[in-house]
Amino acid sequence: QAKGDGRGAFRFFEAGMNAKMQLRRGLEIHLRQALGRGEFAVHFQPLVELEAGEVSGFEALLRWDHPTRGQVPPDQFIPLAEELGLIGSIGAWVLREACAAAAAWPAPLSVAVNLSPVQFRNRQLVLDVVGALGASGLAPSRLELEITETAMLFDTDATLATLRQLKELGVRIAMDDFGTGYSSLSYLRKFPFDKIKIDRTFVRDLSVTEGSLAIIRAVTRLAADLGMVTTAEGVETHEQLATLRAQGCTQAQGYLFSQARPANEALGLVRSIGRSMKDVA
Ligand code: C2E
Ligand code: MG
Ligand code: MG
Ligand code: MG
Q1: Which positions fall inside the EAL domain (predicted)?
Q2: CA-CA 20 to 30 A from 86: which of 77, 119, 180, 215?
Q3: Which residues line ligand 1 (CB under 6 A)?
Q4: Contact at 8 Å (CB) between 138 and 159?
């Protein structure tokens, strides 16, 4: 009887695997063609300066409109693109799109682009950044590159060398999703990041877990001491905003202000968010 249970569980497991692999295969075929078919778009989410009450820039977030499934979240297709060796070409395209959009905004509005750890293992990355800046004419000081802690995990020396090359171009470097990976603190010692983005799990738990407030306070203070600015991710309520402001956080980003929107809506957001921040101040 025990044997029967085991086989049942095995079949169940197998069926689950098949569904997952089928989903993967379905996405894979389309993902290989997505760039060529123009199915990608870059959207922009505003970054709000808490002291000035102004939008100072946008984070570029990739969107994929799958022909039959509709919008597929990046958390699903970016890992697949990394595995399939597609992230290099997709990442280069995002850099060009983001820089071209930002070059049309009035200075000093800036744009932040996410980089995959896989892109860091290729020398092409620095050339792609130079190429995107050159083609758009965007000043390097208006481009920010976001990397997660996983990028620092492998090949640290090569990653550090690439980070230094990028920094020499005059772009800014931000550590994304801070506090969720391994040994976050040791990375801060290895490279002079310009910005720390505090992961949205800490913001989300602000009113629930007392520890989250302590962590946000400590990270904000630490960043200031290291000469780095801080962005709080995932700000959804006025209460969270007030707390972050009281803790001296530099910037906030989240649905409270806006989701990521197409490039042609960016300047409208700068105006409307600027107005509403004046009202609450
Ligand atoms: P991320 O870089 O940490 O980006 C922030 C994510 O949080 C975005 O999800 C954004 O839509 C979401 N977000 C912003 N405000 C709020 C909020 O108030 N509440 C909630 N619940 N979520 C909020 P998105 O666009 O789904 O992207 C997910 C991740 O995919 C990104 O996390 C980033 O790691 C990756 N990604 C997106 N675009 C690119 C890209 O062009 N290249 C690479 N390599 N990765 C990308
Ligand atoms: Mg990011
Ligand atoms: Mg993030
Ligand atoms: Mg995140």
Answers
A1: 24-274
A2: 180
A3: 45, 61-62, 73-75, 78, 91, 94, 114-116, 146, 176-177, 200, 233-236, 253-255, 260
A4: no
State the pLDDT at residue 280: 67
* 20 CA from centroid of ligand 2 (Å): 26
DSSP string, 214-226: HHHHHHHHHHHHT
Give the Cα separation of 219 and 68 in Å (integer): 43
